Amino acid sequence: MTDDPAMEGAEPVTDYRDVAADPKAAARATLVILVSRVIVAALGWVGSVIVARSLSSEEWGQFSFVFALLGVMSIVTDLGVGRVVLAHLMGADRDEIARTASSFVALRTVLGVVGYVVALAYVVLLGYPSDVVLATAVAGLVVVLATPSHALTVLFQSRHRMLLVAVAESLGQTLQLALTVVAAVFAPVLLIFVLPVVANELFKLVVKAFGVARPSVGITPSRHLDVWRWKPMLVEAVPLAIGFALTVAMMKIDILMLSLMDTYDAVGLYSIGYKFSDIIDTFALAAAAPISTLLVAAWPSEPDVFRDRTRTAAMLFGLAGAVCVVAFWPSAEPLIRLLYGDRFAPSADAARLLVVGAALMSLIVLGIFLLTAAGLQRRYPWVAVGGLILNVGLNLVLIPRMSYDGAAIATVVTWAACGTLLWVVIARTVPIQGLLPVRQLAVLLILAAALSGAGAYVVDRAPGTWPLVSLAAVVVLVGLAYVLRLMVGLPAPIGRRRAP
Predict the structure, then answer these.
(1) Are residues 265 and 132 located together in one domain of the fold?
(2) 276 and 211, same structural domain?
């Protein structure tokens, strides 16, 4: 019943700010999407193995280059708009929410088309081979489809209703893998192998589009298109867009420079390392979302809680990265031979370095989310500018001398420098001391280096022991981290009591 007789029988009004603030719903959404990303990562990895084994070295290099280029297009297609529009999707005015949603999806669609044109213009104007231009023209449809699809994901995210998104992404990746197998059997050529990726994005877009219209979501887009809303969306997104664009450029510029300064064979070999390092990046970004929520909740009223949560997250990210490094470093070459074939074995050193770089990148991700939680995100773009300049300079020097190994070295040095500079900025701008557990991370670094070196020595002498060596390195690392009390702020094991 309502106080207004005229409203008797009317649909109750929901304030979606309350829905968005529900911590249990947020936790469920995070768990669902994390499981989905594990599935997508595993299926995507299997697909990459099939493609790499089916194509020639040059074609695999071209395939890797095309999708690296499309990844760079997120600079154009994202612009940070999704992050700022969330606030406008909350409230009790359903008409306002619907108009915002339709305008947002339309804007992202336009940005997707712009990204497609920019990618195609890049390969045409720089005189890339016709096979690359044609593959970009077809694979570029991924950008056109994925951009509005990501916009629909933001709509679901604003309600913490991520189950349908997770299912769509998992089934879409399954469809892509199935079509990749068919292509490998009947038509193993570059152009055919890009079609399953397009089919994946089309499937996800259709499922999300039908799903968002369900009344239970409470966010059915309007039929009205308010173009005037685009300007405030873009203006609000500028600080985030700059930092995001520079970060993407730092992450992808090495492959683009390698394609111009070396061969596609070199690009293909180098891209193998990214198949491993991308897994660390995926989980770091997935874990950063709930951590960011905790930091926002503690800022600025609970500085001690803010510090403790930051230190705990830093050690979790550091330990996870160290585990990946000690597991992969000794086994890189035999694992690459097993999965991708002998012709990709020379990429082992570059792959090792890229995994190290990804471990460093996880701490940078934490730093960015920390600055955002404290309202100081404008500080980060300056760090990214310095990192991009350093990365380009190092690649110009190292690629002509060391090819893809030089690009990998440039990546590690860049991430190490950016991470150091970022946490120096945090120490000087955030009025809370001791946010980063430097001593514990330094000890963890020494342990990881020692175990990686020892593991590589053993595998070099007894190649068949590599699975056991990697497993033993992980067990020893985690055990030493526990004995040396490096796991700051983590829950105590069962049976352990605090000293009175």
Answers:
(1) no
(2) no
Same domain membership, residue 191 and residue 92: yes
Q: Which residues does 5 contact at the CB level (< 8 Å), separation at least 6?
A: none
Domain-located, residue 309: yes
Residue 152 has pLDDT above 60, yes or no: yes
Return the structure tokens found at 57. Answer: 């070295």
Dihedral sign from CA coordinates of 436, 438, 439, 443: positive
Question: pTM for the complete prediction?
Answer: 0.72
89 domain-assigned? yes
Domain that holds residue 23: 9-225
CB 361 within 8 A of CB 75: no
CA atoms within 13 A on the CB side of 138: 16
Number of domains in the chain: 2
Residues 264-287 have pLDDT tens digits of 888 888 888 888 887 777 777 766
Query: In 126-280, where do the E strands start and end?
Result: none
